Amino acid sequence: MDIGLAIRTIRKQKQITIMQMCEGTGLSKGFISNVENNKTSPSIATLESIADYLEVPLPYLLLTPEQRMNVVRKNERKETTAGSGQIKVQQLTAKGAMRMSIVELPPGASTGVSKHAGEESHLVLQGKIRAEQCEDVEVLEAGDSFTWNAVVPHEVTNIGEEHAVVLIAVSKELGLDHL
Question: Are residues 104 and 49 located together in one domain of the fold?
C-alpha cells in the first residue's frame, strides 16, 4: 500500500498546503512529510484525522491502485466476436467479479445456450430480442431490461430486422470462468 502517495495526491488535488494540513490536523510538518513519503506508518487514529481533514472516507486511503477506479476509454475497449464471428462483443470494463459489455447481434443471430456462475443484467439499447431461460421467454425492445441467474441455461436471439445492441453487466464469483 502506498498510503503516503494517496494522501499527497488528494492534498494536492484539493490545493491544500502541508501547513494548512498541519493546522487542520494538529500534526507536525515533519510528520506529515514523513507520512507522505512513506517513511513512517501512522496509527489508525492519525489516518482517520487526516482522512477527515481531506474529506475522504478512511478506507479510500487504504485502497491499492488496483482497487481504485478503473477507466477504459472508448478507443481502448477490447473487442471480440462470438457465434462464428457474427456477434460483436465490446468489453467496456471489468473489476473483480463484475464486468460490463456491449453485445451486438445481427438479425437472426443468437448467443447460443450458455450457463455460468453469477448473475446478468441486460439493457436493450437497440433492436428487438428474445430472451429465453427454461420456461421463461420474453420479447424485449430498446429501453427494456431484465436480470437472470446465469447458472440456469439461457439464450438471447435477435428477432428483429436490424442489429440488436444489448448492454450486459455480469457479476460472478471470482475464479469461476464462463462455461
Answer: no
